[in-house]
Amino acid sequence: MTPALFGIYGIVDAASTADPVALLDAMLAAGIGVVQYRAKAGIDRAIVRVLHARTLAAGACLIVNDDFEAALEADGWHAGQEDLAGRDVRALRERLGPRLFGVSCDDGALAQRARRDGADYVGVGPFASTATKADAGTAIGIAGVAAVVRATALPVVAIGGIDASNLADVAASGAAMAAVVSAIAKAPDPHEAAATLVRRWAELHAR
What we know:
By secondary structure, the protein is α/β, with parallel strands linked by helices.
């Protein structure tokens, strides 16, 4: 299942206190079509299978962060530059088959290389200051994301510190998707938070 790479890109982070299955269900019910499962301490394959069954039933797509072998049990793999170092990236792309392949890129040159290696989209950030990822680095804002958008024909996913208050800025950068972690997972009502972001994104692009 490969929905259009446009809109809110939900992230279910195992480090969150939220139950991953309940959080995924809230995102799917809100209409989010692409969800990434991220577990920096190690991917739980059993959880991947449960989450994937739910995304399949909803007609959505589950992407696994970092762990390539676990990603083969889902709909795609998102890799950081450290995950690609010293590896035959094109061979990995071939093993993925029709699954999505996303790459985190710090600049336009890396985004261009990702496209040559067969990536389907690139992730860029942090858009704003974030405490979700300890090594996220300095916020790059509209200008930083827009520079990568101009450098590549691939869809760009902006990530880092994104919530309803700055979603319009993400849209203004030209990013195709806005990745959201804490603004959904830590909300009193994750479903309503996700639905609000989905509605707001649609409104921003209906103008």
